[in-house]
Design brief:
Strand content: 15-25%
Shape: globular
Radius of gyration: 23 Å
Number of helices: 16
Helix content: 25-40%
CATH topology of the largest domain: FAD/NAD(P)-binding domain
Largest sheet: 7 strands, mixed
Structural class: alpha/beta
CATH architecture of the largest domain: 3-Layer(bba) Sandwich
Bound molecules: flavin-adenine dinucleotide
CATH class of the largest domain: Alpha Beta
């Protein structure tokens, strides 16, 4: 049996980025499905280019831009249309209102009472123990801001329930702002003055969709990426990890599992029931992405923005829709538009939903909002039955427990979007951070280890 220096399980964006940053270890990557990328997936059909998972990547800081450039993907990158800064939300009359200072101060989204309440925000006392997003926002900004602004935003990012999500785990920037300045409004003004242009983030994708990034990462692995190779069981034997995958058994000095929490729980249960129970507590709701393509004249709304968020209090099933063909170029044939709508999430169980029903539902919901005539020329629904991990109350404690348990399992690392942030950029950052740790500087010496021509980072 061959001994590898490092085996990575999971070729989602986390596992692939880890393999890239740890390339001086010449890792072997095992992926359960027939293609790399996990939920980063794009579909080109009938001239429409749909992203079935993440639709964009937010570039902040240096790490992800450096990765894109090291991979030679600069020419593939496309910047979001500047109009994408305009983000719509529905108000109680189901009209689209552009979010921004105008929406906060004008009367189309918030009542006079809610706007006056904002003036008192700088004088409210900071939080005590861990709070839900609802409790935090209610306390600082009031219930209308929660229902009409924050809750739709939480649906857009986590497909989550603000009553259950922990503000410090899911939106750490908010709690940091409160701690730093004692007020969200004061902190926002400070940051705006302090940052100038230097701290600006950029919203990007690739000419052929988000899948370009995992595909390029996967191509650097060559035959060191094994597709259709699920890790089925793990065992510790002497100083090595023994991994069963299909009809083969592999050995590794180090094992890095970049997998969803429920998969980790099942694999680790025979080794440590405590870690399995903790990981099993992380809830993943189902989310569906529905791409709809129309001839331009069938959609009366100008689609001049990022998209529209739909507050849960309106009782509409669709969480929101992105104006994909406005956001990035070449997403639809000339004279056509592409929308990407979302269903499901923590407040609306859609497991078991089928494609026709989901397409019908979003059409019914979006028709009056965007004034859509007729049927779409292109429609595709992708159901992710375990879509996005929810950083609920107690999440931080769960992660601490996992770290403590890991101390008893040598040469094992666990990664994934259930820790360190759910955005693609967070997953890449997590992999980069791991690779910078001292334990990963000097590669192991598994029999299959060979010096790579790429210099260690
Ligand atoms: C609908 C949707 C929209 C999103 N939109 C955005 C967005 O616009 N911007 C953004 O930044 N983020 C977005 N995200 C979040 C982001 O896409 C994910 O958090 C990120 O891609 C997760 O990457 P991962 O590698 O941690 O996990 P995954 O993508 O889940 O990858 C895990 C991999 O492990 C494999 N695997 C599972 N079991 C095994 C096993 N036993 N052995 C081997 N392999 C196994 C899986 O097949 C998969 O390839 C979105 C997510 C979803 C679902």
């Amino acid at each position: 049996m061959r001994t590898e220096a490092l085996i990575i399980a999971g070729a989602g964006i986390t596992g692939l980025s880890a393999a890239w940053y740890l390339r001086h270890w010449n890792p072997l990557v095992l992926e359960a499905s027939g293609q790399p990328g996990g939920n980063v997936r794009s579909l080109e059909k009938g001239g429409f280019l749909s992203d079935l998972g993440p639709n964009s990547l937010l570039l902040r800081g240096h790490q992800v831009p450096e990765l894109i450039s090291e991979l030679g993907l600069g020419p593939e990158l496309c910047e979001a249309n500047p109009v994408a800064r305009r983000r719509y939300v529905l108000n109680r009359r189901r009209e689209m209102v552009a979010l921004g200072p105008g929406a906060l101060l004008g009367g189309r989204l918030l009542s006079l009472q809610a706007r006056l309440r904002l003036l008192g925000e700088p004088f409210r006392s900071p939080s005590g123990p861990e709070e839900s997003i609802s409790s935090f926002v209610n306390r600082r900004l009031g219930p209308e801001i929660l229902h009409w602004i924050v809750s739709p935003f939480v649906s857009g990012v986590f497909a989550g329930d603000p009553d259950r999500l922990s503000v410090s785990a899911a939106l750490p920037r908010l709690t940091a702002m409160e701690q730093e300045s004692g007020s969200l409004i004061r902190a926002a003004l400070h940051r705006r003055r302090g940052n100038g242009h230097a701290g600006r983030s950029r919203l990007v994708s690739f000419r052929h969709g988000m899948q370009t990034l995992p595909e390029r990462l996967a191509s650097t692995l060559g035959d060191r990426l094994l597709l259709n190779s699920p890790v089925e069981s793990l065992q510790r034997e002497g100083n090595l990890w023994k991994i069963r995958s299909g009809n083969q058994t592999l050995q590794a000095e180090k094992l890095l599992l970049a997998l969803p929490a429920p998969v980790l729980a099942a694999l680790l249960r025979p080794l440590h029931t405590g870690i399995a129970e903790t990981l099993d507590e992380i809830f993943y709701p189902a989310v569906a992405t529905i791409g709809l393509g129309f001839p331009r004249q069938q959609v009366e709304h100008s689609m001049d923005g990022f998209g529209v968020l739909i507050p849960r209090v309106l009782g509409i099933q669709t969480l929101g829709a992105l104006f994909s063909s406005t956001l990035f170029p070449d997403r639809a044939p000339t004279g056509h538009v592409l929308l990407t709508a979302f269903l499901g999430g923590a407040q609306n169980d859609i497991r078991g939903g089928e494609e026709t029903g989901m397409v019908r539902q979003v059409l019914e919901d979006l028709r009056p909002i965007l004034r859509i005539q007729g049927d779409p020329e292109y429609a595709h629904a992708q159901l992710w039955s375990q879509a996005i991990p929810q950083y609920e109350i107690g999440h931080q404690k769960r992660l601490e427990q996992v770290n403590r348990f890991l101390e008893t399992l040598p040469n094992l690392s666990l990664m994934g979007n259930w820790r360190g942030g759910v955005a693609v950029g967070d997953c890449i950052a997590q992999a980069g951070e791991l690779a910078r740790a001292p334990a990963w500087q000097n590669p192991g010496t598994g029999e299959n280890f060979r010096e790579t021509t790429v210099p260690p980072r």
